Amino acid sequence: MKTKNYPATMRAWAFSTAGVPEQVLSLNSSFPTPAEPEGSEVLVQISHAALSFPRKNFMEGVPSALRRNAVPEVDFSGRVVAVGVDVSEKFAPGAAVFGTVSKYGSIVSGHGTLADYILINADCIAVKPSNASFAEASCLSVLGQVAMESIRHAQVKQGDRILVNGGNDAVGTAVVQIAKDLGAHVVVICSGTKADIMKSLDVDEVNALIPVVLLL
User: What residues does the Alcohol dehydrogenase-like N-terminal domain cover (predicted)?
Assistant: First the structure.
């Protein structure tokens, strides 16, 4: 019989009622660990999980029928501990990975990443870049996909001149770095307090907005 190399229970932040995270989330130290992976499934021991504003809305607005000890959040990084028989060798136990939980997994089944382990399809993970920490990689999945799709949709190429409005937010900073790597001339509109961050990313032109207070 195959011996499991992970515990039967784990720690997980879960909620069962609607509300803001600080009021409805509670730490469960004996939450059931996901089942052993089958087929193309991978069991990952989570190192870091990224927090996101949409998940806050999820906790406040998801229908009560779906709030059954649900674990929030979708982006994560960690190490593979077990795999199904159809999983590629690059995701062998011990591999450092990052990824995101599907909408079905996070909303319908309540399987999120604020836990010690996550069972996920191999299509939803990638090998962690060696030059990125686990903390950095945990933030890459969703915002990275949005940034890449934006670049592809705009067909950005070397020599192009592009404007990134709001370049100081999570997706914006990713778009800036990808565009620069492709050889584009990048112009950014951002908050005045974030101008130095944009300059540190070698943005070609930074247009910083200065807050104005109107007295009526």
Answer: 40-128
